[in-house]
Amino acid sequence: MGELSKRTRDLGTENAFVVLGDVNQLLAKGEKIISFCIGQPDFPTPDNICNAAIQAIRDGHHGYTPSPGIPEIREAVAKFYTRTRGVQVNAEDVVVGCGGKPFIGYAVLSLTDYNAGHEVIYPNPGFPIYKSQVKAHGAVPVELNLRESKGFVFDLDDLKSKVNGNTRLLILCSPGNPTGGVLSKEELAGIADIVRPYENLWIYSDEVYSGLVYDGEFQSISAMPGMQERTIIADSASKTFAMTGWRIGYAANKALAPAFTRWVTNTDSCPAHPNQWAVVEALNGPQDKPLEMRDIFLQRRDKIVDGLNQVPGFQCLKPGGAFYVWPNVTEACKMVGAENSEELRKRLLYEAGVAVLADVHFGTPVVKDGWHIRFSYASSFEAIEAGLQKLQDFMKKNTR
Q1: Is 62-284 CATH 3.40.50.2300?
Q2: What is the model's pLDDT at position 24?
């Protein structure tokens, strides 16, 4: 039997799901595991959204739709972007897909050519699918390090040194996964100044955590002068509306909408029909439940940050958004004799019953920034309290 292609053999993955598989195996054996590894709201999808999907099914919305989505959802997304991003977005500029993730690949495919030396700059640490999609589609991945000393934002001079005539795409993620870092309006203006001189350079603005900003208002680089035309505004219903499994995402850019539509036609044909109607309700309907979820996430953030900073060897900055914390565990590794954060992660899982992710799951550990692990606080207050106690017990038992 023939072997798999090199592209497939080298394809990266999202390790949150790999670790989740380990967690499920331990749970099946009767082990008690407290999991902070998956970035998924633990709230149910609000009733009004579920009811809209049920009604859509009863109304016979079962078949194919236009590849970029039904007119109603494109209009809802356009209005949503217009009121939350500070820019005017039209329905024909919007394309809806099966989650937000496909648009990463569509952007790389639309803006780079295979083995042409076209470069894509992406945040490190960052969502691992950025790099895997860039490599799989034959572009050149270029890491842009996020610095703990800057609140997990990159240095603008570092960005400037990496941009060149071969750069075709700059990926931004704010609020960020895995750090929760948020780009300020001033930082976005500085990025825009660096990008402007390069006419072939586009921005993929991953804004899936836009509804989970805790300090100040969400800012999109698309609102910077001259940036909307070259910015792909990407978002999804997954995080803000607790709809991860519904798999509906959306992207907007006037010039690229026709290209993205062709990619959707070539891959998924269209997003699930009744799910699109659910998201119409999510975007147009009452926003009290999403705001309530956001407020609870904020309380959880403060609780887990305060608790982690009381665990020996842990140092945790307070993130400005998303539902992740990214504590520095360099000292903790020394204290328990762990070679690195990945060894510490495994020991926490198998010895303490606490599931987290390590920095190696999100890129290359940043030189001189030490070791980090990621906790998702999309879990109950009770789980956070129990997990923090397990960490305390582990450090007390294993400190040399």
Answers
A1: no
A2: 85
Coil, helix or strand for 48?
helix
CATH topology of domain 6-44+289-398: Aspartate Aminotransferase, domain 1 (3.90.1150)
pLDDT in tens, 129-159: 999 999 999 999 999 999 999 999 999 999 9
- pLDDT value for 371: 97
Q: How confident is the model at residue 20 (pLDDT cuts 50, 70, 90)?
A: confident
What is residue 149's predicted lDDT score, i.e. its pLDDT? 93
End-to-end CA distance of the chain: 52
Mean of pLDDT values over 20-44: 89
Residue 164 structure tokens: 């060149």
Q: Do 127 and 12 form a contact (C-beta atoms < 8 A)?
A: no
Which residue type occupies 323? F
The pair of three-digit structure tokens given for residue 128, joined into one six-digit string: 């691992």
**CA–CA gap between residue 62 and residue 64 (Å, rounded):** 7
Rounded to 10 deg, the angle between the 288-308 and 381-398 helix axes is 20
Residue whose entry in the numeric block shows the structure tokens 């609102």: 223
The pTM assigned to this predicted structure is 0.96
Query: Residue 38: pLDDT above 90?
Result: no
Domain boundaries along the sequence of the chain: 6-44+289-398, 62-284
Tell me which DSSP letter residue 174 carries.
S
Angstrom distance (rounded) from CA 254 to CA 57: 31
**From start to end of 197-275, where are the E strands?**
202-206, 231-236, 249-252
List the one residue out of 90, 56, 70, 59 whose CA is nearest residue 270. Answer: 70
CA-to-CA distance for 352 and 338, rounded, in angstroms?
14
Output the pLDDT for position 158: 97
What count of other Cβ atoms lies within 10 Å of the Cβ of residue 97?
28
Does the bond joining 286 to the residue before it have cis omega, within 30 degrees of 0?
Answer: no
33 neighbors 27 (Cβ within 8 angstroms): yes
Closest CA to 65 of 253, 318, 266, 270: 270
Q: CA–CA separation, 372 vs 376, rounded Å? A: 13
